[in-house]
Amino acid sequence: MTESTIFFLSFTLTFLAAGLVKGVTGMGLPTVAMGLLGSVVPPATAAAILVIPSFVTNVWQLLAGPATASLLRRLWPMMLAVMVGTVGAAALLVRVDPLWSAFSLGVALVVYSVYSLFAPALSVEPRIESWLSPVIGMLTGVVTGVTGVFAIPAVPYLQSLNLDKDELVQALGLSFTVSTIALAIGLMVYGAFQLNQLGLSALAIVPALIGMWLGQKVRAMISPKRFRQCFLVFMVLLGLELTSRPFF
After folding, report:
1. 10 Å Cβ neighbour count for 213?
2. Which has the closest alpha carbon to 81: 6, 139, 150, 124?
């Protein structure tokens, strides 16, 4: 097979898998897509391809409930900090040697997955949320800008805010949507988002949505908790492979 055929198959299977994980667990599309695409193309390129499918699926998730306005009022300081941190740190994703960008991505995947597997549930008191939210937002933005992964530390923080199930799903959609927009702006500012990548990014919507549909079917047949555990173990292994590249 030609290189273009291999890339197209990898591209399609990546977004099918990423959509499948999101359909089952409600999250994970950017993490899976960055992890798998980052193993075959530079992380900056993978991040650019991720922009449109991530935006479409996360806006859908954000708007699929009644709490959008209240979450915007509550979380806007965090979202503003995510935007600033991501745009500023995206220079590193673009300019650093791809091997070391992949190393950073691998570290982020391992840390996120190990934390998610073993860390106890946390609870943030309302009295500290006003100053902690912007700090978490800035840290999330920096991690997103450097690695293209949106989950750290935003996901565990949002899980600690004592939101109900539907509010948490919408809050994750809000955070991921803002991170996607900020990453796209950062990539454009530093010249890493090309028009030809825009077409490829739009094409990724199809396998991503098919994967989400399949994931919803799978969710009805197996335990989402067990699926999530298997997914996180896979992310640890993928992260370890990415971290090893600069040394072998």
Report:
1. 13
2. 139
CA dist 87 and 91 (Å) reads 8
Indicate the SS3 state at residue 248. coil
- Amino acid (one-letter) located at 12: T
Closest CA to 179 of 154, 150, 203, 199: 150
The answer to whether the Cα torsion of 155, 13, 197, 111 is positive or negative is: positive
DSSP 119: P
What is the distance between the alpha carbons of residues 235 and 151, in angstroms, rounded to a whole number?
13
pTM: 0.82
pLDDT tens digits for range 118-168: 877 778 888 899 999 999 999 999 989 888 888 888 988 998 898 887 788
- H or E element at residue 50: helix 43-63
Instruction: State the Cα–Cα distance between residues 15 and 248, nearest whole angstrom.
Output: 28
